[in-house]
Amino acid sequence: MGLFTDGAITTIEELSGHDTQLLTVANVEGIDVTRKLLLAQEEISVEVTSLMGRHASPPALEQVVVTPAIKLWHAYRTLELVYRDAYHSQLNDRYASKRDEYQELARWAYSHVIQSGLGIAADPVKRATPPQVVPSAGSLDDGTYYVSVAWTNGAGEEGASSTPSEIQTAGSSFSVRTAAPATVRGWNVYCGRGQEMMTLQNPAPLTTEEAWIQPALSSNGRAVGNGQEPTYRLAVPRILQRG
Q1: Span 66-76, pLDDT tens digits
Q2: Of 32, 91, 120, 227, which has the fewest CB atoms closer than 10 Å, so is most exposed?
Q3: Nearest CA-CA partner of 160 in 194, 188, 183
Q4: Which tens digit of pLDDT belongs to each residue from 108-119?
Q5: The dihedral of CA 95, 98, 104, 108: what is its sign?
Q6: What pTM did the predictor assign?
Q7: Contact (Cβ atoms closer than 8 angstroms) between residue 124 and residue 1
């Protein structure tokens, strides 16, 4: 699932899946959708922090896991912001109707966050940074390879994987290193001939001091994961959402 603070919760492509007219409206009305994604996430972070603050010893925002309900909340809040701007630009009732629709959907998603509670990682693992991938002695098939890494904590829980790095081989292999913070206890390597084909290569998590020398490419490992799962659910009070 990944942590709330790992980066953008929703992509523009995912938003377009909710609203096929999004990019057309944004282009016509001069709306920066990337900026709206960021603003919506900032707004939600304030609300999530407020919800957790009602507990005597609240967890940190960095421990919050992006559950499906939070992801929907963010998507609908972003679309609400887009159509709010579009309406203010043209005072078009169609835009007002879409704004109101997404406002209601955001409230619906928020209610599910309240019902299910906030997903919390007791020992959070942030999204890994892209690895350093350099040529090394070996005999991999010549071609282009994509490499991603994911960090793990002491319990072996894996955080969200990095953006893939790309390398071309010619009569060689490659080595992989990662620069992890002190809280990280290990890391995993995912590799494939395409970004959608990457699978786990190492049989057990590597230590942060180790380098991984890629042997023959294995396709038997699991696919890249979606990030850390919650350790527990934090119950939150049922209060009226603003807006």
Answers
A1: 999 999 999 99
A2: 91
A3: 188
A4: 999 999 999 999
A5: negative
A6: 0.89
A7: no
